[in-house]
Amino acid sequence: xxxxxxxxxxxxxxxxxxxxxxxxxxxxxxxxxxxxxxxxxxxxxxxxxxxxxxxxxxxxxxxxxxxxxxxxxxxxxxxxxxxxxxxxxxxxxxxxxxxxxxxxxxxxxxxxxxxxxxxxxxxxxxxxxxxxxxxxxxxxxxxxxxxxxxxxxxxxxxxxxxxxxxxxxxxxxxxxxxxxxxxxxxxxxxxxxxxxxxxxxxxxxxxxxxxxxxxxxxxxxxxxxxxxxxxxxxxxxxxxxxxxxxxxxxxxxxxxxxxxxxxxxxxxxxxxxxxxxxxxxxxxxxxxxxxxxxxxxxxxxxxxxxxxxxxxxxxxxxxxxxxxxxxxxxxxxxxxxxxxxxxxxxxxxxxxxxxxxxxxxxxxxxxxxxxxxxxxxxxxxxxxxxxxxxxxxxxxxxxxxxxxxxxxxxxxxxxxxxxxxxxxxxxxxxxxxxxxxxxxxxxxxxxxxxxxxxxxxxxxxxxxxxxxxxxxxxxxxxxxxxxxxxxxxxxxxxxxxxxxxxxxxxxxxxxxxxxxxxxxxxxxxxxxxxxxxxxxxxxxxxxxxxxxxxxxxxxxxxxxxxxxxxxxxxxxxxxxxxxxxxxxxxxxxxxxxxxxxxxxxxxxxxxxxxxxxxxxxxxxxxxxxxxxxxxxxxxxxxxxxxxxxxxxxxxxxxxxxxxxxxxxxxxxxxxxxxxxxxxxxxxxxxxxxxxxxxxxxxxxxxxxxxxxxxxxxxxxxxxxxxxxxxxxxxxxxxxxxxxxxxxx
Length: 744
Prior knowledge:
Layout: H1 5-10, H2 21-24, H3 29-34, E1 44-50, H4 63-76, E2 85-89, H5 95-107, E3 115-121, E4 124-128, H6 131-139, E5 152-155, E6 166-167, H7 168-179, E7 184-190, E8 197-199, E9 202-204, E10 218-219, H8 222-235, H9 239-247, E11 254-257, E12 266-270, E13 273-276, H10 277-288, H11 293-308, E14 315-317, E15 343-348, E16 357-361, E17 378-382, E18 389-395, E19 404-410, E20 425-433, E21 439-443, H12 449-459, E22 465-468, E23 478-482, H13 485-491, H14 495-498, E24 507-510, H15 529-552, E25 562-568, E26 571-576, E27 595-598, E28 602-609, E29 615-622, E30 628-632, E31 644-645, E32 649-656, E33 662-671, H16 676-685, H17 697-712, E34 715-716, E35 726-729, E36 734-743
Parallel strand pairs: 1-2, 1-3, 3-7, 4-10, 7-11, 21-22, 21-23, 27-36
Antiparallel strand pairs: 4-5, 5-6, 8-9, 9-12, 11-14, 12-13, 15-16, 15-20, 16-19, 17-18, 17-20, 18-19, 20-35, 23-24, 25-26, 25-28, 28-32, 29-30, 29-31, 29-33, 33-36, 34-35
C-alpha cells in the first residue's frame, strides 16, 4: 500500500556532507538550460549503487547481487546500453562519488523524455535534523517537519561516519531537479532505517540497530542544510515550498522503497546466493511482465510478504490519488523491448572442447522454484522480439551455482553455435522436480545448545526434514525457535506484526526473517523441546508438502491459456499464465492488493479454459496454519471426468472463508490428465495438525505427492542421474497460485 509523501521522505532521509553545488557543476543556469533542450533521441541511463562492506560487523551479502540483477534486467529486457549503466560498489560508493556520478551521468546530460533510474542497495539509518533546520522549523512554530516524528532516515554510503550519509530530503531535491528535464525518473531504495542486525537467517539493512529509539539518534551536520539550500536555489523553491513538498503526497518522478519507514528490509538467503528480498522479487517479476507502477508494487508486495510474513511491505510515491499516472505508467516509464524470459545466455563456456556449451543467467526464475532447475530442465532459445524458437538449451545437470548455470545447445533450427548466441533469451520448456525434496529447518539461536541437540535428534526421524545451520550463505526454509522478549518488542512496533505476537517462552515455527510463521504453531511457555517437536511434526510435514507444491507453480511460464478469477462481494482478483491474456491479471482494490475474506463469507472461484482441448482441474488450499487441504475434486467422487473443464469454457465453485485467520494460498492445478485419483490419495494421506503423526505417514505423504507429480509429468528424466526426476512441460500443465487473507 503506498504511503504519504511525508513517509517517503522519512524513508529516504539522512546526513549529506558538504559538497557545494559549484563542485558538482550545478548552477542556476542549469534550470534555464533544461527548458531549451534539443529534442534528441531519448537516452536510457541508470546509476546502480550497491554496498556490501560496512564497518562494525554490519556487512551485507546481497547488495552487489542486487546491482547485477538490475544490470542484466535493464540491458536485456529494457534495452539499456551497457555503457549507459554506471555502477558504484563498496568503497567506490562514497557520498562524494555518488553525488558526482549523479551529476555527471544523470543530471547534466539529461534531456526531455530520457529514462533515468537510480537504484541504491545497502544500509539505511535514522538521524535527527540539523540545528539550522530545527531553527527554521521554530520560525514556523513547528518542532518537526512532520508532527511527532522528529527524525529522518538516511541511505548509508561507504563511510564510517553519519556525516557521509545522504538525506532523503536531498534525494527529493535531486529527483525534482531531474524532473525539470525529464518526467521519466525512478529512484529505487532497497534498505531500511531501524532494527539492523541479524534476524534469524536474514540480515536487516539498517545501520541503526535499535527499534523505536528516537531519543539517541545522531544529528546531521549544518552543512547538509547548506547543500539543500543550494539545490533549492536551482529549483527556485523557497524553504516553505521545501517543507510543503516533504509533506505532499505527490513527488517528482517515481520513488519505490523496499519497506515502509518503520519496517525491516531483508538481506535474504536464497538457494545459492544472497540478495535483497525486494530487489530480487521486483527484477524477477519484471522479467515476466510490466504492469503500471501501482499494480507492479502490489504484486511484488504479495511476494515479499510471503517471504517475510508481513514484516516488509514495498511502498511507492506518488500515490494514485495524488497522481493517477502511477495507475497506467510502468515503473521505469517504458515498456520492455524484449519478450518475457526466465534466463539469458551470457556467452560460450570457455572450455574449447565443449563447442555447444553456454553459460546461463537465471535471473527470471521464480525464487521458490530454483530447485526445479538443477536437473532435467530445458529452455527454448528464442528471438527476443518475435519469440521464434531458434534452438533448445538443455541445462547441464548439477551446474547451477546460485543464478549462474551451464547449458548445452540442441535441436537448432539454423545451425546455431554457442559462440553466436550471447545475450539471447531463454524461456522455460521443461522443469525437473528432484526425486529427493527436503524441507530445510534451521535451529534459531533463541534455542539453547541442549535444545538444539534434542531438536536435531528428534527431527532426524522425520522423512525429508533436513536440519541446517542458521548461518550466512545457508538456505533455511523455516526456523524452529523460542519466542523471546526481544522478538515480542520488535513485533509490537507495527500494527501488522503486532498481530503475530505469541506467548513468551513458547516454541514454534518462524520465517527465515524470525517472524512467527504459522497460526497456532506456538505452544505453552517453557514447553520442553521434545514435546514441542512431537506437537509440531505434522506441521513440518505439511510444510514439506507445501514446498513440493511450490516447486510446481509455473503460471509465469506455462503456455496453456488458462486463468483464475476469485470474486468476493464487489472485489475481484485474477491471475493468468504466460499463455493467457495479461488483462486477466486483476489486483483487488484492497490493502496490499490481496483479497480479504471475512470468516463465514463465500467466494466464487472460476477457472477459464481458453484452450482448444478439454483440461482437468484440481483445487488445493494451504491455510494460515500451514495445513494442506484438497477442495476439488470432491472426496465422494471417483469419476475421472468429474474434474473436466471443456475447451473454451469455464468452471466455477464456491468456497467459504474459515479459520485459521491470516494468509492462505489457493493453488489451481490444470492438466490434460485426470487429477481425481491422485488428489484423492493426497487427501487421504494429508497430516491432521491436531493429531499426532501416525507411523509411516510421512512416507505415505511422499507417495501421494509422487502420484501428483506422475499425473502432471509427461516424461521422466532420460539418464541415470535424472531418471527419477519428474519433468513438467510448460506447454502441457499449469499450476496457478493466488493469496487471500482470511479475517475474523
